[in-house]
Amino acid sequence: MAKRKRGVFRKVWSISWRVLIAFVLILLVFRFVPPPTTAFMLQSDYPVTQDWINIDQLPPQVPLAVVASEDQRFPDHFGVDFTAITKALSQYDDGEGLRGASTITQQTAKNLFLWPGRSFIRKGLEAGLAISLEAVWGKKRILEVYLNVAEFGKGIYGVEAASQHYFGKSARHLSANQAARLAVLLPSPRKRDPNHLTPNLLERVAWIERQMQQLGAGYLTPILD
Length: 225
Fold this sequence. Notes:
By secondary structure, the chain is mostly helical. Helices cover 58% and strands 3% of the residues.
């Protein structure tokens, strides 16, 4: 019996190490090569449209709008915002349901490797993957991948495909207002259209633009240079 247990343990250990090594190799490759697809794209109910664009080709207002809307502490945390998580758990204990509290890094990890939902298991995996991305990729690459894999509509992935679809032009030429309109789609991309926003969402766009001005054009310069 003891021999059998040791044999099972060795097999599990061997498989675990191989999976870990394979995962690290995938991260190292994707540090330089655009991911050919993502878990979310593979699970999409709609035809997928995506056009990769390097972050250096984007005007500064595009990444700034996303950071202002989704994760203003992005330059400072290491993948997980523990302040936001503590707040979300407190709200959950008060009966408000399990809220997101995900950083841009966590959202990138989720889009690449996981599945929709808000279970504690998925959130735990998401946090671990996010820390791995921070360690292997760094901020600039994480933000670049996020801007290219986030869903902005039914089967529309990345800011370039979204800009072409909604505004008929490359993301290279987006204005600050248009960047903010795309950023406002991210929580519910399949239910919103930047050209037909409700009054509440237009207020949100205005708020994002104010946040962009307060953060300043050079807010992301230290992580993008």
